[in-house]
Amino acid sequence: MEDKKNPVYSRTDTSKVNMAEEEWKKVLPQKVYEIAREKGTEWAFTGKYWNSTEKGTYYCAACGNPLFVSDTKFESGCGWPSFYQPISKTSVLYTPDNTHGMQRTEVQCGRCKAHLGHVFDDGPPPTGLRYCINSVILDFDKAQAAEKKFDKDKGAATKEKE
After folding, report:
1. CATH number of the domain at 21-157, please?
2. Structure confidence at residue 100 (pLDDT)
3. pLDDT of residue 1
4. For labelling alongside 32, which of 4, 71, 109, 132 has CA 20 to 30 A away?
């Protein structure tokens, strides 16, 4: 949902966002700031989207960049929303993360460099990847247009049978 307080939030603007941390702190809700800018994480099995099966698109909660579609979401059992691929190659960035005594790959928003989560190589086909993403940093839009078209087509098919 576009935020009036956040001047960079846009689901259509693809320009890179370069904003000072002090400004991010002013425009982002505290929980989003903690994940996006301080590389925090939410507790497993507590996030809004970890077990969601709704159809639609997931966006960066910090800048509105389209990140994932629900068709690539799967149940991994890890407690965070898991996807096997981003919307596009430029949707996300990859950064080595050697914190907490582990070697992982951090996933960042391709537009604003917000911390999203991590990617692992234990996902399903076709990519074999598991993007383990914090719900707090995701905005979601249900696929209403597709649903309306389906309902309309279903209604037309029912009338034809009558």
Report:
1. 2.170.150.20
2. 86
3. 47
4. 71
Sheet containing 66-69: give its strands across. 66-69, 56-60, 138-142
User: Pairing mode, if any, of strands 130-133 and 138-142?
Assistant: unpaired
CA 158 to CA 13: how far, in whole Å?
41
Six token digits for residue 60:
């960066």
- Model confidence pLDDT, tens digit, residues 71-97: 999 999 999 999 999 999 999 999 999
Distances in Å between the Cα of 77 and the Cα atoms of 17, 44, 65, 80 are 33, 10, 26, 8
Residues known to be catalytic: 132
* Furthest CA-CA distance within the chain: 66
